[in-house]
Amino acid sequence: MNINRRIEALGLHIPPSSPPGALYVPVKQLGGALYVSGQVPMVDGKPVYTGKVGSERSIEYGQEAARLCVINMLAALKDFTGDLNKVKGVVKLLAFVNSEVGFWEQHIVVNAASQLLFDVFGEDGRHARSAVGTNQLPMDVTVEIEGIFELREQEAE
């Protein structure tokens, strides 16, 4: 399976990776695992999905934010590896949803991220996951997602 062709068939555009906004690296390799720092729904360095899911923002709004987090995660991986075909699949996601008090459907918001990764990587896109509600995220973004990915064997060091 060619990941780049799959992304094209899905009609996705992977933008250039954004530089880190603080003292961290976007991707860190440990053996055959790539740890991707938390990605937020930004375009051209500006947050495009902000606010709390619940009464202020809909589940669908949160899902679009989660999808953009994954697209930015793929951008970071592409920048680090040079080619997304070097990534075998997804191991785990940790997602934070900026939530109103009483909102309890974070897992439904994050399903959009999981679905997109399945669409891109097929069965290798299935992953372990946590979806956590929080009262605030940086820049008031709606969702932040970090992930662990597996490199293909010839790429692991």
TrEMBL record:
It comes from the Bacteria. Pfam families: YjgF_endoribonc. InterPro entries: Endoribo_LPSP/chorism_mut-like, RutC-like_sf. Residues 6-139 form the Endoribonuclease L-PSP/chorismate mutase-like domain. This is Endoribonuclease L-PSP/chorismate mutase-like domain-containing protein. It comes from Paenibacillus montaniterrae.
